[in-house]
Amino acid sequence: MKIHEYQAKQIFARYGIPVPKGEPAFTVNEVGAIAERLIGETQNPVVVVKAQIHAGGRGKGGGVKVVKGGPSEATAVADKMLGMQLVTHQTGPAGQKVRRLYVEQGLAIERELYLALLVDRDRRRIAVMASTEGGMDIEEVAAHRPEKIITLHVDPALGLAPFQARKLAYALGLGAKESMKSFTRLLDALYRCFVAEDCSILEINPLIVTAGGGLVALDAKVNFDDNAEIRHPEWEALRDTDEEDAVELEAKRAGLSYVSLDGNIGCLVNGAGLAMGTMDIIQQYGGSPANFLDVGGGASKEQVKTAFEIILRSPRVKGIFVNIFGGIMRCDIVASGIVAAAKELGLKVPLVVRLEGTNVEQGKQILQESGIAVQAAASMGDGARKIVAAIRAGA
Amino acid sequence: MSILVNQNTRVVFQGITGESGALHARACIKYGTQVVAGVTPGRGGQRFDDAVPIYDTVEEAVKLAGADTSCIFVPPAGAADAIAEAVDAGCKLVICITEGIPVLDMVRVRKYLEGKPARLVGPNCPGVITPGDAGSPGCKIGIMPGHIHRKGHVGVLSKSGTLTYEAVYQLTELGIGQSTCVGIGGDPVGGLDFIDVLDLFNQDPDTHGVIMIGEIGGSAEQRAAAWIKANMKKPVAAFIAGRTAPEGKRMGHAGAIISGGKGTAAEKIAALEDAGIKVAPTPADMGTTLKSILS
Question: Which residues of A touch B246 (CB under 8 A)?
Fold first, then answer.
């Protein structure tokens, strides 16, 4: 789960991680007053207006503006930014609509560093990554100057050890007494934050050294481990559903795993691996999947119905391929869910169904007796071929 | 012969009184698995289906019922603790079916497992099965449909549940039986990885070939490819799911995500082919691809 920069910074502040003074704004009207307060408090006329969307690369897309002309200019900048479609390398060509802003104090930057914590699946440890090359795309740095990235792994029993923090501080050129102290304190707080808040990634890019020699998290990216939602009821308040695909959200609420794709063949599959495999085989036969949809191991008739409705409602879908290998999942339940949804919403596109496994005969019978137009497939290869051919015939 | 489990394996089900724990314990018993105990704290002294003794702790299940392997159906919030309990009690194999365990819980449990003799399979996996036949009962520990399997000599190894069933079904249809099928699960941090299981298959005289099914995310398949190239004495076929998956979107499994351009299917397939492993072009060709390397 992703959260906004300003929310991440509010969490940082609770852990004593230094962040610039700032306030979120949801309307243009608020911005002038916030800027005035910040300028008054900091005695610095510079503020920064930042678009809050769940995607990186905002600066290049025009989503971060340094304002030197006081509250009225901040308001003018906000007026342009709020509501714009912000396009970055992570949003796709359509961009993401800006609905929230963050206004914060400007700071004089001496140096820009990079610091991140994440779960390294290969080492099965929390990893700390740091670099002196802050403020740029870290993937670029990793690709072209990998020696500029220092990585170390945290022993879960020991926790992040002071010697590791010192090692990083020296590597980042923060070896002087005062900066060493600020850095080790900051890193310790970040690690505690990562663990207690169940983060999957926590990234500060850039971590700045100010003109006064202090360290400040100028940006903040925090993603949570979705699996840990069970012990974080407070996440619900941090969720911004405007940033999520409405259909994916609906599917998630129904207990389904759904991802929208660009093609025109709707897929309904049980199991993530088989769902990916189904997307692949459709492509192999010259088709293009409209979605990834895993109804899970033991979906109910209602869940299958919801899943099928989600597919039917999509105007992009020109054909549907159901591929079920019933283990725990019973084929008769899948068939009943499909029939219920098709009868309610009407079926205007070709439907190919491949059923295998538990209660397959009952499932096939339910489909046959329902009167809905369905082509049976003998295998997943056969099904993929049939749905691609059916769409070509209809086009 | 087989790997990990056989007809003598004595299984305790942790979470046997929960809905899915009960359902699958019954299916495993029906298959012929020796389910010797269940564990649900607070339900000690009762019996599951009037037969299987239930204990409050895994320690009792090991000491009193002779369990040596645990199968875990405990909900995600308590599942990592259940793994540690089984290991502490002396189970030599722990199979965790539970889906949705927080990743940092697994990081801590993996650390706890270091230096201990227990093996962990999963979490978020279908389990392990050594198919039986009329002459010798098999052992099914997990949620896979038992009836699609057939006793034989091919090892099946996979991150994905239903894709494993698909592969097994294709093999059985082709008349190719399986020695043992192991679902290692799709989570970012888990127990046995591809190499651990490949090593076991390599040493098992009854396994003559292996099919390995991977998916996007991480680099376990690439490391397995290098290991196979250096060590594997038996033919290996493979399939990688997610060729068409876009970057940055999590495909169901917590680990199935392409991030920073890493963990793509193309990268994995190239590594496997470089190691001389035949990769099935589509999931419908898994059985025939394996067949082609056996003969």
Answer: 259, 261
User: Distance of alpha carbon A90 from its chain centroid, rounded?
Assistant: 10
What fold, for A1-20+108-243?
Answer: D-amino Acid Aminotransferase; Chain A, domain 1 (3.30.470)
Architecture of the domain spanning A245-394: 3-Layer(aba) Sandwich (3.40)
Residue contact B282–A292, C-beta within 8 A: no
Which of B90, B123, B156 marks a domain boundary? B123
- Paired tokens of B153: 């000599």
CB-based contact B242 A122, cutoff 8 Å: no
Q: Which domain holds residue B118?
A: 1-123
pLDDT, average across residues B113-126: 96
d(CA B16, CA B18): 6
Assess whether B149 and B295 both reside in one domain: yes
In this predicted complex, what is the ipTM?
0.91
Q: What is the percentage of chain B residues whose pLDDT exceeds 90?
A: 87
| Cα Rg of chain B (Å, integer) | 18
Distances from the Cα of A47 to the Cα of A10, A20, A40, A73, A294, angstroms: 18, 10, 11, 10, 46
CATH class, A21-106 region? alpha beta
**Would an 8 Å CB–CB cutoff place B219 in contact with chain A?**
yes
Tell me what the mean pLDDT of segment A178-196 comes to. 96
Residue in B closest to A295 by C-alpha: B252
Q: Of B22, B11, B18, which is closest to residue B42 (Cα–Cα)?
A: B18
pLDDT at A56 over 80: yes
Contact (Cβ atoms closer than 8 angstroms) between residue A292 and residue B245? yes
Pairing outcome for strands B209-215 and B34-39:
unpaired
Instruction: Tell me how far apart the terminal alpha carbons of chain B are, to the nearest angstrom.
Output: 21
Q: Tell me, yes or no, if A323 comes closer than 8 A to chain B by beta carbon.
A: no
In terms of pLDDT, which residue wins out, A59 or B26? B26
Q: Which residues pair with B262 in a beta bridge?
A: B259
* Band of residue A395 on the pLDDT scale cut at 50, 70, 90: low
B173 and B285 assigned to the same domain = yes
Is the pLDDT at B202 greater than 70, yes or no?
yes
Beta carbons of A157 and B282 less than 8 Å apart = no
CA–CA gap between residue A64 and residue A103 (Å, rounded)? 10
Alpha carbons A341 and A338: distance in angstroms, whole number: 5
Token reading at A327: 């283990």
Ranking A254-268, A293-307, A356-370, B167-181 by mean pLDDT, the lowest is: A293-307
Query: Is B223 found in the same domain as B150?
Result: yes
- Residue B205 burial (CB count, 10 A): 8
Cα–Cα distance between A155 and B33 in angstroms, integer? 38
- The pLDDT, as a whole number, for residue A330 is 85
- The alpha carbon torsion through A324, A326, A330, A336 (nearest 10 deg) reads 10
A-contacting residues of B 33-72, CB under 8 Å? none
Residues 6+ apart with CB under 8 A from B98: B72, B73, B74, B75, B76, B79, B82, B122, B123, B124
CATH of the domain at B229: 3.40.50.261
A327 has a pLDDT exceeding 80: no
